[in-house]
Amino acid sequence: MDLTQLIPIGVFLLLIVVLSPLLGTYIARLLGGEGADEMDWKQYLGAILTFNAVGFGFLMCLLMCQQYLPLNPDGAKGLDLALAFNIAVSFVTNTNWQSYAGETTLSQFSQMVGLGTQNFLSAATGIAVLVAVTRGLSRSTGASLGNAWRDMSRIVLGILLPLSLLFAVIFVSEGMVQSFDSARQITTVEGLQQTVPAGPAASQIAIKQLGTNGGGYFNANSAHPLENPTPLTNLLSTLALILIPGALCFTYGIMTNQRRHGLALFVTMIVLLTIGIGTSLWSENVSAAAIGETALMEGKETRIGVAESVLWSTTTTAASNGSVNAMHSSLSPAAGGVAMLNMMLGEIVFGGVGSGLYGMILFVILTVFLTGLMVGRTPEYLGKRIDAVDMRWAIVAIIAPSASMLIGSALSLTTDVGRSSMLHSGAHGVSEVLYAWASAAGNNGSAFAGLNANTTFYNIGIGIAMLIGRYAVIIPVVIIAGRMVSRIRMKESAGTFPTHSPLFVLLLIGTILIVGALTFFPVLLMGPLVEQVQLMQGGF
Amino acid sequence: MKNHLRNSFLMLSAFTLICGVAYPLLVTGIASVVAPSQRNGSMIVRNGAVVGSALIGQTWTSERYFRGRPSAVGNQPLPSGGTNRTVASKAFRKDVSVLRDSLALLNDVEGASIPSDLVMASASGIDPHISPQAARVQVARVMKARGLATSRSAEVEQAIVASTDQPLLGIFGMERVNVLRLNLAMDALRP
User: Do B30 and B86 belong to one domain?
Assistant: First the structure.
């Protein structure tokens, strides 16, 4: 591992550490305070779920009749029911799993008006839920969690749109396309025909990166030179993967008036991310050496190189973004395993905008519950008592996505219809299937693209996993917030377990890794770990 | 509930207009002023004819041209993509070694001097770049095919340097040679 690989990674982490508190403070100011027409948890949850359901219905209709709509210069056809269902769920749940190739399947109208809008709104949904939960934990009177409509409007207009506009203008200046022309036929220097795609890509790529969406305009996603043309767009895109999720840790600290606790959560995330990046880079280097190459360039782009490819692969799976700048199926097996583990941990290491932090809060509640049991005290979080019903909801939210990953993988690996989509057999085939379900239930959306997921079985199954991964977490976490909002805050005493100390960070990391390892270690053994051993021993 | 439905339709309509229509139109408007060439695919024109996009790799078969990276899609961008192959299989290693041997033979160089990017397929299938090392191992063969005397290798080196982009601030991204720009520069050399 040489220094030229570590410097860009180090500078990247430094930039995140500097930028996150700045943006986090701004967001706290934007969303702080109380307003008129506040909602209790039932109204807030009802508003969010209704809004998502309406968005889903609209998007599905739009995709199924895109051939009758404008801005379709390349003649994209209407989609069948299973694929339209899958795409609509995927973009409404902020997953952005894609079982299709954007440039050949969707019209510009579908991409821009349909998917583009949900890129913003699914991100706003996640942040709004987080803010509601934050209010539930920080207030101690009344029953209200804020107003969902006001929160979502402020999030879109005050955070997502201005940042996207800034990023999009830089992106297009660097060479991303942004036009409404049809794909252009050209004759190459050697006289061959080539089609150069077009479309309003830059505007969509900006929000795709910032809103932890990840759905590419083009099939190769951010490995496509028109979607990620230069080292500058690559750096900004990588920063955008975790900029808002990182900032929200600080927003949370400010809004709960527990800044050091917010910082502790940020540190926990950075530590877990850095371990993942280090492991991936190490894996790439030893694997290249093992097969006698200087670098594993299969599935990677020349302008990006190995270090920034695994920086992205680790960051995009830690954050539930899911865009890729290298093909994850061709990563060295252990680096692919890190990507999978990131998603299996529940997308809480930065995670999706909003969803990463409210997922992390569930693990914090589990951690303080466990420490409370160890010392024999009634567990409390931010001065509020945690009772058995809260714990039951927290466990539902932690287990439901994991269960859908394992059940989905098991179904795929034991049925002909599941196995027939695999590109590889053996350990890599297991990884392809496992990755797909982890990506869906983690609401990540990236893929081991060897698997042909555009079949009715996978479109429907993965669609259901995405729904569970999103709403089996949102519903419990809002219920917990609704139960806790009116509880009286207890004074800190000598017996209070501090939630900002290094010991707390260690315990939290321990809890996350133990839950993740116990659930997924056996199946990770059968996939990436076996394959890494096979590679080191000369290949299978 | 009725209230939620009404508000949902209102919000969705308003934000579809703002985020799905106004925002991309605004970006397109700004782009047409600040980046008119980039927003249309960074096309390169020679003698009045478009010969390609600076950002999309092309297929090169003639010995007179530098070759680009192997492509899973034959450099046809609809749709783009990689091979998605595992690097852990014997079959992958064999294919890499066969390609390396054939490139060594073609360029009359040692197999060990051919870098990984020239024998492994890119992620997009349309990577427009190769590493500087990948360009340099092809120099002698390209010059021979063009009948250029070895005394003119400085001019070729100059063409490579002119087609090379450096990492951002010396830190981010890789040093890389744009194959289309390099081959156009070769065509522009006097015979």
Answer: no
**Does the global pTM surpass 0.90?**
yes
Mean pLDDT of A110-124: 95
A449 interface with B at CB cutoff 8 Å: yes
- Interchain contact, A300 vs B21, CB within 8 Å: no
Q: Are B139 and B183 within one domain?
A: yes
Cβ-contact B159, B131 below 8 angstroms: no
Q: Is B4–A50 a contact, with Cβ atoms under 8 angstroms apart?
A: yes
Residue B138 lies in a domain: yes
User: Distances from the Cα of A396 to the Cαs of A306, A365, A367, in angstroms?
Assistant: 39, 13, 15
Question: Quick one: pLDDT at residue A491?
Answer: 84
pLDDT confidence of A1, banded at 50, 70, 90? low
Q: Is residue B124 part of a domain?
A: yes
The three-state secondary structure class of A380 is strand
The three-class DSSP label of residue A512 is helix
Mean of pLDDT over chain A: 94
**B135 shares a domain with B174:** yes
B71: left (phi over 0), alpha (psi -120 to 50) or beta: beta
Q: Same domain for B161 and B91? A: yes
Distance (Å) from the C-alpha of residue A352 to the closest C-alpha of chain B? Answer: 20
A174, A293, A424: residue with CB nearest B86 = A424
CA angle (B130, B135, B141) in 5-degree steps = 140
Q: Can you tell me the mean pLDDT for B58-63?
A: 96
- Give residue B156's domain range: 58-188
Asked whether the predicted pLDDT for residue A517 surpasses 60, the reply is yes
> DSSP string of A255-280?
HTT-HHHHHHHHHHHHHHHHHHHHHH
Residue B50 resides in a domain: no
Q: How far is CA B40 from CA A366, A490, B49, B178, in A?
A: 52, 61, 15, 18
CB contact under 8 A, B173 and A298: no
Q: Are residues B67 and B154 in the same domain?
A: yes
- Residues B83 and B2 grouped into a single domain: no
Q: What are phi and psi of A141, to 5 degrees?
A: -135, 160
Asked whether residue B51 is assigned to any structural domain, the reply reads no
- Within 107-126 of A, beta carbons closer than 8 Å to B belong to 112-114, 116-117, 119-121
A354 token code pair: 């909003």
Query: How many angstroms separate the CA atoms of B3 and B74, rounded?
Result: 54
Chosen from A164, A238, A298 to mutate, greatest number of chain B CBs within 10 A: A298
Q: Mark whether B36 and B64 lie in a shared domain.
A: no
Same structural domain, B2 and B81 = no
Map tokens 């004074």 to a residue: A491
> How high is the ipTM of this complex?
0.96
Residue pair A211/A160 in contact (Cβ under 8 Å)? The answer is yes
When pLDDT is cut at 50, 70 and 90, the band that residue A3 belongs to is confident
Structural domains of chain B, count: 2
- Count Cβ atoms below 10 Å from residue A414 Cβ, excluding itself: 9
Sign of the dihedral through C-alpha A148, A152, A158, A160:
positive
Minimal C-alpha gap between B11 and chain A (Å): 8
Average pLDDT over residues B11-38: 96
CB contact under 8 A, A327 and B84: yes
**pLDDT over 70 percentage in chain A:** 100
Q: Summarize chain A as % helix, strand, coil (round to 5).
A: 65, 5, 30
- Structural domain boundaries in chain A: 3-188+195-536
Q: So what's the pLDDT on residue B1? A: 64
